Amino acid sequence: MASGSSNGDLSISEKSENKGMMWELDRNLDQPIDETAGRLHILYREKKFSTILLCRLAFQSLGIVFGDLGTSPLYVFNNVFPDGVKDKEDVVGALSLIIYSLTLLPLIKYVLIVLRANDNGQGGTFALYSLLCRHAKISTIPNQHKTDERLTTYSRQTYDENSLPAKIKKFMEANSFTKNAILTLVLVGTCMAVGDSILTPAISVLSASGGIKVEFPKMSNDWVVVVSVVILIGLFNLQHFGTEKVSRLFAPIVLLWFLLIGTVGAINLWKYDSTVLKAFNPANIYLYFKRGSHNWTSLGGIMLSITGTEALFADLCHFPVLAIQIAFAVIVFPCLLLAYTGQAAYISSNTDHVSDAFYRSIPDSIFWPAFLIATAAAVVASQATISATFSLIKQAVSMGCFPRVKVVHTSQEHLGQIYVPEINWLLLGLCIAVTAGFKRETMIANAYGTAVVIVMLVTTFLMVPIMFLVWRSHWFIVFLFTGFSLLVELTYFSAVILKVDQGGWVPLVIASCFLIIMYTWHYGTLKRFECEIQTKVSVAWILGLGPSLGLVRVPGIGFVHTELASGVPHIFSHLVTNLPAVHSVVVFVCVKCLPVYTVPAEERILVKRIGPKNFHIFRCVVRYGYKDVHKKDDNFETMLYNGIARFVTCEGMMEFGGYSDSEEYNTVTSSIDGEILPGEKELVHRRGSLMIPPVQANHFSIETTDEIEFLNICKDAGMVHILGNTVVRSRRDSNMVKKVAIDYLYAFLRRLCRENNVMLYLPHESLLNVGQIFYV
């Protein structure tokens, strides 16, 4: 593959004055690894779930996904009527709004429509963004290649040139402003979701703990706050056990909670005032607003009845779509309707009890058991948004939008179940600050509604291109979905925005801080990548130095880590010009994240030889999805070495057998402690099911055997990872905002985040850092 072209390549490199010929040579020497990617394209089938497993997952989803939505009856009506009920008909109107809000947003928009917009089972704003990045070239970091599109988990649509989706795609790809606008929208939704995960535990636990004052009205509110803080500390200390273990503990509690509120609601409806059932007539919504403008501002309280809806989508990675749909339709939705209808019936007969209607509507004989269940359910409610935040932060890290943090994979069976320690303790500190600062759930409720409605608006805006590009929906269907969603959500937004000065500023401040961090990190990452591109060295120049690269080739393997999938990184040219020796085998390693949820292990590594065989230079591209987690058990060094050895083996087999590079194949190798045994190799030709026995392989692969033995010798001599410690600084003529962002904030975040070698679990004694400074 390489030896036949060696003489020609070297003779051309001697004529370096001819720039056109040099460019052609560089292109031929460092071709994209399309062929390797094509060979690895295997059949991927979505995992199917049995009926029993599906029911079990639907049960477990109660403990993770629906806790927040399910505990809303604790605090909705007292926030709808903070000054008491002046007209019983207002109770019916408010109940009608709650019923149709639950029907339009959680049921129709999310459960039936938005959940279908998942990225192979992954939900949240970044999952939508990854879908868009695959269907349109809107990624702000241009590190993707057409070889990535051959992944089995990489799916996208093609469009007719004159079709509406094609025009929308062209508009989105037109300029950097559009790309940055979409990214900013995604980051705003993510930051608001993080703010939601801070407010949910605070309001849920504080509302549940407040039930004590129903039995002990003289108790100081400070004691309620203390109890709430203790419960919050216990909740966040449970997170390291993982989602699966937590859901097993929480799911029975939430199921018991839904049965409790549904049963109590049915009893209250029968016992007090069944006439509230007329709230199912949507005309009562019109009459409710007609009775006074003060009812418009009460929408902020009614908005609380659908809080937790956004967690349905963000927590999708933990459970299949059908399991969540079954749990919502069979248990959650009916029990919530009974709970709100029963409370409305009780309030209609006891208008002076609206401030603590939930606990007062519970029969005295079961008050304390109900209080304990409510407190436990409030703790569970927090789990939904905490789990969603872990998923969102992991996706943001993978997409280059958040500093690298430690991610712990807590389940061997479910890819999306993770725990992020740094974020967990940050959320705990902010939750305690909000709880102790506000002390009453009314102020937190105002903040809560602001965060929730903004996340919903972001989801609606992102669904528009998804429906056009991914689903290829008719424009009228898209118009109906967008119109009805915006009609409801903008109505709520107009109400909650009026309460910014009454607590609504909290999520805005929190989200602004996270947005600054995320956008600054992404901007700095983009500038580093651009500098790598601008300073890369031609492969033809490196090969022009000869097999020894003009240096002494010492035994060993040098893994040169870079963000480039083509060309030679600046750090290597810096080494070549300043050091007298280089390793016998040089491997350029590019680790990159793709806009897919996972990359199958069989397709993770792509290997390409650079130049003639006697140069012993390879390129290795390691690809991950945004849900893939680097685990300590994965030996990254061994994975790289085995990938190169398999490539050499397959290359030798194809040269002997006369197979073309376009044919798909797979190698089966035997290994001991990562060493390839050259005597035991088989070639499985996928298309023709052709198998070459080991004896024949021995006969034709003498040159291949020698190279593999050479690789083993170099491996035993030692493997070194050469990392670029790149420092990005602003130019002297940069404006003040850029200087603050790059020289102070980005530099500070770089010092705080985990290094690449720690994320990949590289041995510390095998590291070589090469410092370089780029001015942007």
TrEMBL record:
Residue span, K+ potassium transporter C-terminal domain: 555-773
GO cellular component, one term: membrane
Single Gene Ontology MF annotation: potassium ion transmembrane transporter activity
Pfam families: K_trans, K_trans_C
Places the protein is found: Membrane
Topology with respect to the bilayer: Multi-pass membrane protein
Spans through the membrane: 49-71, 91-112, 181-203, 223-242, 249-270, 296-314, 326-346, 366-393, 414-436, 448-470, 477-498, 504-526, 538-561, 581-599
UniProt keyword terms in alphabetical order: Ion transport, Membrane, Potassium, Potassium transport, Transmembrane, Transmembrane helix, Transport
Cited InterPro entries: K+_transporter, K_trans_C, K_trans_N
Domain K+ potassium transporter integral membrane: 57-541
Function: Potassium transporter.
Family classification: Belongs to the HAK/KUP transporter (TC 2.A.72.3) family.
Protein name: Potassium transporter
Organism: Rhynchospora pubera
